[in-house]
């Protein structure tokens, strides 16, 4: 069944295409199918229908408007004119013969530019003549209605303003005379070949006079005006209108006010320079009023980077108009650079008004939103009350007018501040700075830039808010305007016709004409016009007319005619009438009626701007002038200024660098200035090269903007994460904990921006930020790894902490932005993405660090379970630590110093915290690779030690007996030295000791790793055991809570699946069945991981397997089957000799043997002895043990003889104490080895972090435990 079109449209209207993107840019242009508020073109084609003898006025008005538009185009040509001379090539001496061709080509290029100047010359002559003729028409005696309309006054003033701007531009542009001089020179060179060049030369001379004469256009206008001496009246009318409009703030839009300010000094000069009654002006307008206006506005915006000064204009024109030179009060006005800055900059600088502007903005937006809500409610209500409807729409109309006034006032402040800054360059700037840098880059303080950003954001936000509601308020505006007009013409004028103008036929005729041309009798519910006219003679008071609201606004012609007729009623067409526009001097109209006429007259002026709604909003929010700098480009003689001098970019950079985080929401607003300037370049100035320059700057600055914004975002989230990860006890103990807190910034708004409007393009800012954030996170990880590679192994705790901060910042950012997974980026930077890659970059660096620095240079302190760097170790050359921004550490300097203080606590040793960090960083994937590399290092060391130990064995006597007790300690020590004939083997001894030390260090390192892994396994077991139905038993065994059946997690999902399958309303029972199967798989996986082995036991088994190859050499079996107490070749004898040797060295005062070896030697030597089965031999026949026994016997015998035992042992106390410490350490090591690796069970314990057996990774020249040992349980 087909759906009716009406229903389909109604259904489509319920869909919303709006997304969650906030509006943080200025208004844009969009296509709308709804009726908008801009439906009234400014034209006067229907004037003739009203039969008011205004046809001649209308033609002149249209002619003036056309001339004004043409003049603006001419001004654009002059403003954007750039010198061609700079681009002319210079011929080398070798090409002098081609000079004629160069002149010809140069002439052809310059002739195109000069033709535009000739066109401007011809146009200004024509425009001046037509403007003068139009002014002279108003004094003709045959004219029936003498007074000009208000629209006509405005058209005259706008054309005069264009002529003044053209003259000012011609005077300011130095490149134009330069190019003309080149053009004239080339014309002289090439014209010799032409015929009949007299007319061209004459035209050239005229153009030269025009370009070289200052104020040539104004002088020509003066000549045209006073050909017939009768324009003083209209000039005085214009001055009165300008003065009253400025004093009463009649101009709704700021461009109109600036036009009035620019033409007023010129009008004063023209009037006072006339031959006839030049002083009559001051009878109508007191000179003090003019002086006050000139003093209040000492600088007037003319062009983006050009300003006018009334005082300067008056002084300069006094030399060209001699009669004006007598106006001393006007000529003594100070120029802008002569004014005290503190007095006037209070008016011009935005920062002095930003508080009031902020309050105005907040108040207006609240009331505007409230009015919009009322209007929406009215639209959704059927059959609403007429009075309420009129009130709501009237309130909306008032809000629109107020919004236009606010926007006009705010934008005018920016124009005027820029003009003030251009008039007063920075005085403290360096002489090397360009003029433009002095007026822009170094002329705005940071506070002034922030104030300007804030005001620009207010203008753009209010403009965007008003533009979005264009189609919503259109009918309300039209109805309100219609009601205003009809109330005036049907009620107010009717009352006046019955009372004030009843006996004044001429005025009554004008009022009747007003009703005829604008009254809407079709909407009237009372009497018709004919009935109303007949009732005028009835003598009874009629009630006010009631008319239906209609969305029918008056045309521009109707507004034009109404203003004309009201002015005719008030002034009677007398140009010389004293007083102002609505002054009561000599008028017979009552004050109340005059006030009503004045109020409606000024309302008519607002109507055209409100009807031209979109154009008005665009005009008031256009800030493109902040980019243009054509005048300073010419004066500075550069092609373009660097981006740092561009005011829009300065504002963007100010927001990014500002400590005020609230401004960051407005960071996109200054970029909207580029949209405005590009629109001006293409539509108003019509210059493609300007657009290309804007586009190039936008491309460059947007890249910088995104980079800086991403840096700000990354720094904020990094600081936030670092602040949250700070130790609470540290914050509690800190005297100034506030400096470690991070002020919140509303970045989620910017992170949602998927459509940034820039030069007609839609840019996905969110995608760009995501891309750069992914890159920055990878760069940060890369930097942390590079930094770790320049440090020792103790820095692993700091690396983990910094990675934790980075990971937490990634988690915080991921709430607002879809960035890559952190684990994916970490694996990518660790080069650990491949499925067959088990050695990560971090694991390789740890292993490299252990090989090159940790094992050779760190010594073990068994008491503290820590490795520390030996004070006697040779320094290892490492690359310098790379430098980076604070954001690559913890975000801010304060947070960096706080976390650095924690890192320093772990930088001087290697212990359990570092082992936890290694396990967490490497994980179950890379840790087995590192373990295997360390085990193969043990195998390699044993292989390297074998020939060295053989060399020591060869130096020993064939048999070594027990030490004699009767020799005492002194004799035994001497006897041991005689047995150990290793004086020539000192280097070999040192290498063997270092080799044994490294083996011991690796084994102890494995012991620490085993402790950490067991703790992690226990934690995992505690988390998974309840779900698997497991309990730890009394003897350490794992017990099952259920005798038979499934584990709790499997039972839970199976019962849930069975219940859902039996439920008839279940949409997809198969998904629950799949979940129960997944629970069974998880149950098997986690149960398989429970029986993990011991890394230390596996390392000991691996070492034992490596020693089996050398067992015959290091542990000879006794030939008789009994222990041979004289054997000297076993390993325990070698180690015993080495041990007593370095104990003797450590007992010496200047010795550093222990500081070089530490306790790792005992771990390495005792482990080898234990695994070779020589523990008992060592404990019986070790030299230091025997000496300790002898010392004990000797001390006991001394005590029995009542001698001083201290005297008997004199000289050996330090050595004996070192031997006792060594024996205690050896006993500790042997007890640990017996507990973890009983000799009767020499099997390898597989490493099962993930439940799978260790992959067989082979290293060159090493023994594989998987080739020599069976797996446990096989």
TrEMBL record:
GO terms for cellular component: cytoplasm. Residues 156-217 form the CYRIA/CYRIB Rac1 binding domain. InterPro entries: CYRIA/CYRIB_Rac1-bd (IPR009828), Cytoplasmic_FMR1-int (IPR008081). GO terms for biological process: regulation of actin filament polymerization. It comes from the Eukaryota. It comes from Arachis hypogaea. Transmembrane segments: none annotated. This is CYRIA/CYRIB Rac1 binding domain-containing protein. It holds the Pfam family FragX_IP. PANTHER family: CYTOPLASMIC FMR1-INTERACTING PROTEIN-RELATED (PTHR12195). GO terms for molecular function: small GTPase binding.
């Amino acid at each position: 069944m087909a759906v009716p079109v009406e229903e389909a449209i109604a259904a489509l209207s319920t869909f919303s295409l709006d997304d969650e993107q906030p509006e943080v840019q200025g208004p844009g242009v969009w296509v709308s199918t709804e009726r908008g508020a801009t439906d009234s073109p400014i034209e006067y084609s229907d004037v003739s229908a009203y039969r008011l003898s205004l046809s001649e006025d209308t033609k002149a008005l249209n002619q003036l408007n056309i001339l004004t538009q043409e003049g603006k185009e001419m001004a654009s040509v002059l403003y954007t004119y750039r010198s061609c001379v700079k681009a002319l090539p210079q011929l080398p001496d070798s090409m002098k013969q081609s000079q004629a061709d160069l002149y010809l080509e140069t002439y052809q290029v310059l002739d195109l530019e000069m033709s535009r100047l000739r066109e401007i010359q011809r146009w200004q002559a024509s425009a001046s003549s037509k403007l003068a003729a139009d002014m002279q028409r108003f004094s003709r005696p045959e004219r029936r209605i003498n007074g000009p309309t208000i629209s006509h006054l405005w058209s005259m003033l706008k054309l005069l303003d264009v002529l003044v701007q053209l003259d000012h531009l011609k005077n300011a542009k130095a490149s134009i005379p330069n190019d003309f001089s080149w053009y004239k020179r080339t014309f002289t060179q090439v014209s010799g070949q032409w015929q009949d060049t007299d007319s061209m030369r004459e035209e050239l001379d005229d153009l030269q006079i025009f370009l070289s004469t200052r104020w040539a256009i104004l002088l020509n206008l003066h000549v045209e005006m006073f050909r017939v001496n009768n324009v003083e009246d209209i000039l005085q009318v214009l001055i009165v209108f300008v003065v009253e409009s400025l004093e009463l703030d009649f101009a709704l839009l700021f461009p109109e006010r600036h036009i009035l300010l620019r033409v007023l000094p010129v009008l004063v000069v023209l009037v006072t320079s006339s031959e006839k009654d030049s002083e009559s002006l001051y009878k109508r307008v007191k000179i003090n009023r003019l002086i006050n206006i000139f003093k209040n506005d000492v600088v007037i915006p003319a062009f983006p980077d050009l300003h006018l000064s009334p005082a300067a204009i008056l002084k300069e024109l006094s030399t060209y108009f001699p009669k004006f030179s007598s106006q001393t009060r006007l000529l003594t006005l100070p120029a802008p650079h002569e004014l005290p800055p503190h007095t006037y900059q209070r008016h011009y600088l935005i920062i002095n008004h930003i508080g009031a502007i902020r309050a105005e903005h907040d108040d207006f937006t609240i009331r505007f939103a409230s009015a919009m809500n009322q209007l929406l409610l009215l639209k959704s209500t059927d059959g609403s009350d007429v009075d309420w409807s009129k009130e709501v729409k009237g309130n909306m109309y008032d809000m629109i007018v107020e919004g236009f006034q606010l926007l006009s006032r705010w934008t005018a402040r920016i124009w005027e501040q820029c003009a003030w800054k251009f008039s007063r360059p920075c005085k403290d700037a360096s002489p090397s700075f360009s003029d433009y840098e002095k007026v822009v880059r170094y002329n705005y303080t940071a506070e002034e830039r922030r104030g300007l950003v804030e005001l620009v954001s207010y203008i753009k936000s209010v403009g965007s808010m008003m533009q979005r509601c264009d189609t919503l308020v259109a009918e309300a505006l039209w109805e309100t305007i219609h009601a205003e007009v009809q109330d005036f013409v049907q009620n107010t004028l009717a009352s006046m016709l019955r009372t004030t103008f009843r006996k004044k036929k001429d005025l009554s005729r004008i009022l009747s004409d007003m009703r005829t041309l604008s009254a809407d009798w079709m909407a009237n519910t009372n009497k018709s016009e004919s009935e109303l006219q007949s009732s005028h003679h009835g003598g009874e008071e009629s009630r006010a007319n009631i008319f239906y609201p209609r969305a029918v606004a008056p045309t521009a012609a109707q507004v034009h005619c109404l203003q004309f007729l009201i002015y005719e009623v008030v002034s009677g067409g007398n140009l010389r009438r004293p007083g102002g526009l609505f002054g009561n001097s000599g008028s017979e109209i009552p004050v109340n009626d005059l006030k009503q006429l004045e109020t409606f007259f000024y309302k008519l002026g607002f109507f055209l701007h409100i009807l031209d709604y979109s154009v008005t909003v665009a005009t008031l929010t256009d800030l493109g002038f902040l980019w243009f700098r054509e005048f300073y480009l010419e004066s500075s003689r550069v092609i373009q200024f660097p981006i740092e001098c561009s005011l829009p970019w300065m504002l963007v950079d100010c927001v990014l660098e500002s400590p005020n985080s609230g401004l960051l929401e407005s960071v996109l607003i200054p970029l909207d200035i580029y949209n405005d300037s590009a629109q001006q370049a293409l539509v108003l100035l019509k210059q493609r090269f300007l657009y290309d320059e804007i586009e190039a700057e936008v491309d460059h600055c947007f890249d910088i903007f995104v980079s800086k914004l991403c840096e700000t975002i990354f720094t904020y989230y990094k600081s936030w994460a670092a602040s949250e990860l700070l130790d609470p006890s540290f914050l509690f103990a800190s005297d100034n904990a506030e400096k470690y807190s991070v002020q919140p910034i509303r970045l989620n708004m910017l992170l949602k921006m998927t459509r940034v409007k820039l030069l007609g393009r839609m840019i996905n800012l969110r995608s760009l930020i995501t891309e750069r954030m992914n890159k920055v996170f990878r760069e940060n990880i890369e930097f942390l790894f590079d930094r770790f590679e320049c440090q020792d192994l103790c820095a692993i705790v700091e690396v983990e902490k910094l990675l934790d901060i980075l990971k937490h910042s990634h988690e915080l950012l991921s709430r607002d932005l879809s960035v890559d997974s952190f684990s994916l980026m970490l694996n990518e930077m660790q080069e650990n993405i491949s499925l067959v890659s088990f050695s990560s970059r971090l694991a390789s660096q740890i292993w490299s660090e252990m090989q090159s620095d940790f094992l050779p240079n760190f010594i073990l302190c068994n008491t503290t379970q820590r490795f520390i760097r030996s004070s006697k170790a040779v320094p290892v050359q490492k690359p310098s630590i790379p430098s980076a921004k604070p954001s690559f550490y913890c975000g801010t300097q304060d947070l960096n110093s706080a976390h650095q203080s924690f890192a320093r606590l772990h930088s001087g040793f290697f212990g359990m915290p570092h082992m936890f960090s290694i396990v967490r960083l490497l994980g179950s994937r890379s840790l087995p690779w590192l373990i295997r590399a360390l085990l193969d290092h043990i195998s390699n060391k044993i292989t390297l030690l074998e020939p060295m130990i053989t060399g020591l064995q060869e130096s020993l006597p064939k048999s070594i007996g027990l030490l004699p007790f009767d020799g005492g300690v002194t004799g035994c020590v001497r006897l041991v030295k005689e047995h150990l004939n290793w004086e020539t083997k000192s280097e070999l001894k040192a290498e063997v000791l270092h080799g044994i030390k490294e083996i011991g260090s690796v084994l102890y390192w494995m012991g620490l790793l085993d402790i950490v892994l067991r703790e992690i396994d226990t934690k995992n077991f505690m988390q998974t055991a309840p779900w698997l139905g497991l309990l730890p038993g009394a003897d350490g065994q794992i017990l099952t809570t259920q005798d038979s059946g499934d584990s709790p997690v499997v039972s839970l999902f199976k019962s849930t699946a069975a219940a859902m399958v039996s439920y008839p309303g279940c949409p997809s029972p198969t998904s629950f069945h799949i979940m129960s199967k997944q629970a069974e798989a998880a149950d098997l996986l986690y149960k398989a991981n429970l029986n993990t082995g011991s890394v230390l036991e596996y390392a000991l088994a691996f070492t034992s397997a490596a020693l089996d190859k050398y067992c015959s050499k290091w542990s000879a079996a006794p030939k008789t089957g009994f222990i041979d107490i004289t054997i000297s070749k076993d390993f325990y004898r070698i180690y015993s000799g080495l041990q007593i040797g370095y104990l003797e060295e450590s007992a010496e005062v200047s010795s550093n043997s222990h500081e070089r070896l530490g306790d790792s030697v005992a771990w390495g030597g005792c482990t080898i002895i234990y695994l070779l089965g020589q523990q008992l031999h060592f404990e019986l026949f070790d030299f230091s043990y025997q000496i300790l026994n002898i010392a004990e016997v000797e001390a006991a015998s001394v005590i029995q003889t009542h001698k001083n035992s201290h005297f008997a042992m004199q000289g050996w106390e330090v050595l004996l104490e070192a031997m006792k410490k060594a024996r205690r350490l050896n006993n500790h090591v042997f007890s640990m080895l017996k507990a973890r690796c009983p000799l009767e069970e020499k099997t390898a314990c597989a490493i099962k972090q993930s439940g799978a057996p260790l992959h067989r990774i082979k290293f060159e020249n090493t023994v594989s435990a998987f080739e020599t040992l069976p797996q446990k349980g096989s």
